[in-house]
Design brief:
heterodimer, A: mainly alpha, 12 helices, B: mainly alpha, Rna Polymerase Sigma Factor, Chain: A, 2 domains
């Protein structure tokens, strides 16, 4: 705020004020004895109690608004320490309280799904029995393997298992199910692959009764499967069975008489089927099958009898 | 605290929590304020009014905005405390506060020269004593304008802002106060 200048005709007032001001100022600094301190003490003296009361009030005012305090007004309680956020404890509680029930629930769902799946396969007619495809090969091994291994690593073998896998969100490519890994066909090796970690051991104990039940049902189904196969087609000599499936890991894979859809057989089984047709005197059928086999497996080595049959068929 | 620091800076610092800033402010202004109260209301209540004025300043610190001079802000508070004191004493303001005609100014609320402290009466410097006596005999409004000019160091316009009166009124009061003081000193 700027000091307003008085008009020129008020110069007399200013001069008088200046004179009075200088005189009045002396009243603050001079006493009758000429002692400035005494005069000042008289005019400006303030009881120390009044000073203390005012200054204390000023300090209290700052203390009542701690959010505005500066560093000069220290908090008697000391600097406020930030409250540590408990992060690890809830996580541990979550792990211990949620993970185990979830794992248990997953095991129950998986076991129930497999149980009903086996029940359905045992009670429903199975058209694949006459022509077992690679997808249906070794059902026992697949199921036992699926119990001893994580679900994501096991390939669903039937439509029902695909549905169950889809429900669990672990559906695999159906094309992958056409090649069942040989390792899964070995129950002993599959059992050796069981997780023996401390956390998995209780789960495996819970699963074991289900696995035994399913394995028993699978054995029954395999026996039924063999009985039906024996009635459908004459069995090949045992020597021939061993000869036609040298690299096969499954005995069921070498059952040519079980399949009418020869194209779905393994190359060796298909050749065995063609040889049986030839022995039965159906040379034309055997030749036709052999040509199809040749088209399907052009890289496979051709046995001598098959080569001879092919040559005889090509010559008029 | 640095003596060159302005009042406004100190008040802002105190508003923001700096207690030392208030100590500096109080040390700068307490003498003038207590003298103002001694002249206007007497020694008996001067310190009480001083305490009340600074307590109001403390309570109003969060509302302080450095848009005006702190001096104007402080003396407005000081005067309002005095006005409240007048109202408590007589239930009405001194008549001179409402009168603008200097010739009809009354002398209500005057601190009689006889009420001055004996130590002051004993001053050998008669001129100074006379001046103080003359100031005490001034009408309240004229004395207030004079004291605000001399004690607070306010300009005419600042006094007008503090008292809420017009610039011309303050100037007129000052003129008549000076006239009476000069006349009294010349008569000595």
């Amino acid at each position: 705020m700027s000091k307003q200048q008085p008009p020129s005709h008020d110069n007399d007032l200013d001069d008088d004020l200046d004179a009075l001001s200088s005189l009045y100022a002396r009243t603050h600094t001079e006493s009758a004895d000429g002692d400035p301190e005494q005069a000042s003490a008289i005019d400006s003296a303030i009881d120390p109690a009044t000073d203390n009361a005012i200054l204390a009030a000023a300090r209290r005012e700052l203390g009542s608004a701690p959010h505005l305090q500066s560093a000069q007004t220290s908090d008697p309680r000391g600097p406020k320490q930030p409250t540590p956020t408990p992060k690890t404890a809830p996580r541990r509680r979550w792990r211990s309280s949620v993970t185990v029930p979830l794992a248990g629930a997953a095991v129950v769902v998986l076991s129930t799904t497999l149980y009903f799946d086996n029940q359905q396969q045992l009670t429903q007619p199975q058209p694949q029995l006459e022509a077992p495809s690679p997808a249906l090969q070794a059902p026992v091994e697949v199921q036992s393997g699926s119990l001893s291994q994580p679900r994501a690593k096991s390939e669903p073998q039937t439509r029902t298992e695909f549905d169950a896998a889809a429900e669990l969100g672990t559906a695999a490519d159906p094309a992958e199910s056409m090649q069942a890994p040989a390792t899964m066909a070995d129950p002993i090796r599959a059992e050796q692959r069981q997780d023996t970690s401390p956390t998995a051991a209780p789960l495996m104990q819970q699963v074991k009764p289900h696995a035994e039940l399913i394995e028993q049902q699978s054995r029954q189904r395999q026996q039924t499967f063999k009985r039906q196969a024996d009635t459908l087609a004459p069995a090949a000599p045992m020597a021939e069975r061993k000869a036609i499936a040298p690299g096969s890991t499954s005995a069921l894979q070498a059952e040519p008489e079980l399949s009418d859809a020869a194209e779905s057989l393994a190359p060796e089984a298909w050749l065995l089927r063609i040889q049986q047709l030839l022995q039965q005197g159906d040379q034309a059928g055997a030749l036709a099958q052999l040509k199809q086999w040749r088209q399907r497996y052009p890289q496979q080595p051709l046995p001598d009898w098959a080569q001879a049959l092919l040559n005889s068929g090509s010559t008029p | 605290m640095d003596n060159q620091t302005t009042d406004e800076t100190l008040m802002q610092a105190y508003r923001d929590g700096d207690y030392a800033a208030f100590e500096a402010l109080y040390g700068r202004h307490k003498a003038a304020v207590v003298r103002f109260y001694r002249r206007q209301a007497g020694d008996q209540v001067a310190e009480e009014l001083l305490q009340e004025a600074f307590l109001r300043l403390i309570g109003a610190r969060l509302r302080y905005q450095p848009q005006a001079l702190f001096r104007t802000y402080l003396w407005t508070l000081v005067r309002s405390v005095l006005v409240d004191h007048y109202r408590k004493q007589s239930r009405t303001l001194p008549a001179s506060y409402q009168q603008t005609d200097p010739d009809t100014l009354d002398t209500d609320g005057l601190v009689e020269s006889e009420q001055l402290e004996p130590s002051r009466q004993a001053c050998r410097d008669q001129q100074l004593n006379r001046l103080l006596q003359l100031i005490a005999t001034l009408p309240t409004a004229q004395r207030e304008a004079f004291l605000l000019k001399e004690e607070a160091g306010l300009s005419v316009s600042e006094i007008a802002a503090v008292t809420g009166d017009s610039f011309d009124t303050i100037k007129s009061r000052l003129r008549y106060a000076v006239k009476k003081l000069r006349a009294g000193l010349e008569a000595l």
